[in-house]
């Protein structure tokens, strides 16, 4: 893999991008879509208009979790084609940037709308710096090829922006990593196309704003329950995957926990309620076992601050 091209060449399914696709590759936080395709070399960049898109219709066997595509733009920069798709799911809105190279290689990164706004501003800065550079000089080229670098941080994601130079020219490499691990994904934008890329982002952000969406209210306070010599803690949290409940069991030097996504709470509740009803029916027909269970000594209250 070179600095100018990166991606995954495994063909999967059919999509609007061509004969192939990539589903949920590298960044499950955003419920990635599917894409692929061929490119047609072109000497000058051209910018296609944003077009409204119908809600995505997940194919059989795919888990799109109610994802919708709100708009899309296509950019042809030299021999590369870029798709900027505004998408929405229950966790909010984001932009999927898909790059397809002349040789069919493809890669993608994901940007929350607020991150896309920061990226747009960086593109202006990088474009100004690029315009101030003289013609390439192999003798003065940095050893690592980097001419200018910046970094963006969004929750557990980091984005590395590197304006680089090699024998094929100058380009902006955008790398996305996740702090807890996972594959690294990146795209490479030819330097002379940074202005067109920035303008495309600006059009989308003007239409959809920079608010990532998702849950904005106050989360419920944690709860604590003691049963005999065990403590149970119920804590509500939120990250870029959504809202979750962490249930921790603490006993002496032993601690374990599970994390339940908010979308599954109702199902968990129904299962618990079903077991409670069955145990209640059994205790009614079987004697005093229900009374013994209810007198085991519990203390329920708010969790520790």
UniProtKB/TrEMBL annotation:
Where does the record place the region Disordered? 1-68, 282-305
Asked whether the keyword DNA-binding is assigned, the reply is yes
**Example of a GO cellular component annotation carried by this entry:** nucleus
> Can you tell which superkingdom this protein's organism belongs to?
Eukaryota
Q: Which GO terms describe its molecular function?
A: DNA-binding transcription factor activity, RNA polymerase II-specific; purine-rich negative regulatory element binding; RNA polymerase II transcription regulatory region sequence-specific DNA binding
Q: Which PANTHER family match?
A: PUR-TRANSCRIPTIONAL ACTIVATOR, PURINE-RICH BINDING PROTEIN-ALPHA, ISOFORM B
Alphabetic keyword roster = DNA-binding
Record Gene3D superfamilies: 3.10.450.700, 3.30.2450.30
Which segments show compositional bias classed as Low complexity?
49-60, 290-299
Q: Mind telling me what this protein is named?
A: Transcriptional activator protein Pur-alpha
Q: Which stretches does UniProt call biased (Polar residues)?
A: 37-46
What species was this sequence derived from? Answer: Frankliniella fusca
Which Pfam family, giving just one, matches this sequence?
PurA
InterPro entries xref list: PUR-bd_fam
Q: Which family does it belong to?
A: Belongs to the PUR DNA-binding protein family.
């Amino acid at each position: 893999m070179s600095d100018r091209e990166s991606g995954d060449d495994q063909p999967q399914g059919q999509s609007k991008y061509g004969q192939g696709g990539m589903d949920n590759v590298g960044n499950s936080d955003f419920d990635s879509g599917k894409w692929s395709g061929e490119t047609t070399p072109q000497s000058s960049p051209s910018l296609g208009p944003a077009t409204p898109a119908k809600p995505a219709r997940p194919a059989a066997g795919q888990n799109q979790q109610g994802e919708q595509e709100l708009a899309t733009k296509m950019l042809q920069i030299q021999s590369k084609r870029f798709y900027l798709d505004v998408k929405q799911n229950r966790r909010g809105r984001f932009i999927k940037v898909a790059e397809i190279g002349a040789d069919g290689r493809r890669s993608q990164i994901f940007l929350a709308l607020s991150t896309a706004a920061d990226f747009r501003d960086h593109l202006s800065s990088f474009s100004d710096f690029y315009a101030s550079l003289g013609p390439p000089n192999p003798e003065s080229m940095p050893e690592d090829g980097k001419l200018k670098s910046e970094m963006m941080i969004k929750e557990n994601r980091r984005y590395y922006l590197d304006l680089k130079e090699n024998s094929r020219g100058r380009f902006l490499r955008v790398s996305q990593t996740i702090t807890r691990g996972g594959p690294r994904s990146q795209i490479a934008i030819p330097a002379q196309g940074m202005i067109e890329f920035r303008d495309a982002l600006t059009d989308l952000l003007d239409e959809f704003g920079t608010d990532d969406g998702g849950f904005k209210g106050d989360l419920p306070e944690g709860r604590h329950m003691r049963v005999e010599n065990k403590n149970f803690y119920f804590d509500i949290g939120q990250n870029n995957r959504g809202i979750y409940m962490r249930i921790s069991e603490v006993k002496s030097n032993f601690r374990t926990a599970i994390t339940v996504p908010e979308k599954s709470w109702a199902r968990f509740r129904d299962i618990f309620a079903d077991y409670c009803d069955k145990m209640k029916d059994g205790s009614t027909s079987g004697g005093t076992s229900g009374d013994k269970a209810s007198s085991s000594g519990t203390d329920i209250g708010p969790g520790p601050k």
